[in-house]
Design a protein that fits this description.
The chain has nine helices and seven strands, in the order βαβαβαβαβααβαααβ. It is α/β, with parallel strands linked by helices. The two termini are about 30 Å apart. Keywords: Oxidoreductase.
């Protein structure tokens, strides 16, 4: 199918060393994109970049893949809570065509008893960081006349989620940001969309389940498809939104939730 390759495009994925971020990196790399694995966990980012580069050596043998090795993946450390780190990262990343805002932090606790210091960290990483990063990288996309912005939010931000008031608030802020950017950058053929994962089987969820046994099973039973999502479910939609086949999709908020939320 035409329009599903990303050869020659450079993609930054924040939180790229995490479960969903790594799945996104792998899918974008499989479509030919040059990957910048961006994460506060520099060691984890390097390990994933090494994995992608090792896999690229055999890419030319796949059906429909371009001949020769893919351009190498790179790992760059970035702390989204530190504006100076974000600025330094953008200087090191170079021209970027695709920016996937996947990084996020969450503290699960009832809102009335929550710690405002934790609010600050979630605001800095989940919302201010993406705002700063986009402000620095979007001008290059508009100048080149092509770009993709994808913001990973949460179905908890769309429908509410017990114990995640501050997290949901910061992730909901991405809706307004993404839709505004969709309008402002449209003439430059830059699209901006939000992907909202529902209950997804990640190490983060398993840690919560360890504290509250039975939570994962309860969540799975509540999903119409009767299973939790996996990182690849999210990555597939993100990868599609980055291709030319999705060039007419912008300003949208899309759930990957197995039907637990319907809009």
């Amino acid at each position: 199918m035409e329009g599903l390759r990303l050869d020659g495009r450079t993609a930054v994925v924040t939180g790229g060393a995490g479960a969903i971020g790594a799945a996104i990196c792998r899918d974008l790399a499989s479509l030919g994109a040059r990957i910048v694995v961006a994460d506060v966990d520099g060691q984890g980012a390097t390990a994933l970049a090494d994995e992608l580069n090792s896999e690229s050596l055999g890419l030319g043998t796949r059906v429909g893949a371009p001949s020769g090795p893919r351009a190498p993946a790179r790992a760059l450390r970035v702390d989204l809570a530190d504006p100076g780190s974000v600025t330094e990262f953008c200087g090191d990343a170079g021209p970027v065509d695709i920016l996937v805002h996947n990084a996020g932090v969450s503290v699960v606790e009832p809102f009335v008893g929550s710690d405002p210091a934790a609010w600050d960290l979630m605001w800095q990483v989940n919302l201010r960081g993406p705002m700063l990063l986009t402000r620095l990288l979007l001008p290059g996309m508009t100048e080149r006349g092509w770009g993709r912005l994808v913001f990973i939010s949460s179905d908890g931000a769309r429908a509410g989620s017990g114990g995640e008031g501050a997290y949901a608030a910061t992730k909901a802020g991405l809706f307004g940001l993404a839709k505004t950017l969709a309008r402002e950058a449209a003439r430059a053929q830059v699209t901006s969309n939000v992907v909202c994962p529902g209950p997804t089987d990640t190490p983060m969820l398993r840690r919560v389940d360890a504290e509250k046994p039975g939570l994962v099973d309860k969540l799975a039973r509540s999903v119409p498809l009767r299973r939790l999502g996996v990182p690849e479910d999210v990555a597939g939609l993100v990868a599609y939104l980055c291709t030319d086949r999705a060039a007419y999709i912008t300003g949208q908020v899309l759930s990957v939730s197995g039907g637990i939320t319907m809009h």
